[in-house]
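User: Hi! I'm working on a homework problem where we have to compare a predicted structure to a textbook description. Could you give me the structure for the chain below?
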Amino acid sequence: MADTTVRYDWPYQEPSDPPDGPALGKDLAEAIEATVGTIDDRITALIASHLTPVTVAGATAGTAATGFTVNNATIRTLAAGKHVYVKLDIRTTNAITAGGGDIPDTVIFNVAAPYRPAEITSTIFSATPGTGEVQMNGNGDVILRTADVTISAGRDLRMVFEYIRP
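Assistant: Happy to help. Predicted structure tokens:
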């Protein structure tokens, strides 16, 4: 059996070779196992490099805007930073007045550059009592947009963003 496939170098029997089924089966099985093992090792390494979570917190995640303090800011990424999960717990220093659900656009946090979305993404924040809409823009600004009640000073605003970066 002197002949092998071009791409994977798997052995095969030519019509002019003397029949030797057991040797062909063993040689082919070992060659296939080596090829599949190499492919498996490469896939495992690729998964590890793209799906190993990276977590940053505190000042590495970003900074609070004036009038707000950070209780917790955690960012987790997967897929080499393309899948981003941002969890924020921000405390208000001053009250935020809601009139008919609308509040003046209020920047509360700025996400660090490596974790910013390519386009505006929105989510809901909770502040007991009350909820509202919050957005994050491509500059990383987290902006309060609406609230169903006035948010008193010292209230904690909790929110989660999840998005895919290009």
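For your comparison, note the following. Helices lie at 21-51. Residues 3-51 form one domain. Good luck with the assignment!
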